[in-house]
UniProtKB/TrEMBL annotation:
A Pfam entry, by short name: TM2
Organism of origin: Prevotella melaninogenica DNF00666
Intracellular or extracellular location(s): Membrane
Chief localization: membrane
Protein name, entry field: Membrane protein
Transmembrane segments: 50-69, 75-97
Amino acid sequence: MESDKVNHILMMLSSKIPAGSIPSVRTRLENIDISESEILALHSQMKDPLLSILLSIFIGSLGIDRFYIGDVGLGIGKLLTAGGCGIWWLIDIFLIVDATKRKNLETLSYYLR
């Protein structure tokens, strides 16, 4: 893939994947033939870290933040324990952004195999 297309795609994805994974994603994108429309479709499937932190702050004790990123088991656990009596909810406020970015990287890695 052309380097300006790769740079454009990385700018779109940079806020949704971990910063440390950008060099490996760049290498994969350079070595794969994927259309920009496929990348846009993939981008629309990725979860927004900002929305996940807002969900975590306001209704995270119900596990909605974990359901949003696809961690159904953890979402059920938070729901049944009322956010671990508030402790799990508080910890998740700090962890949910990284968890969202890791989930997005897993989704991206699946499509770039």
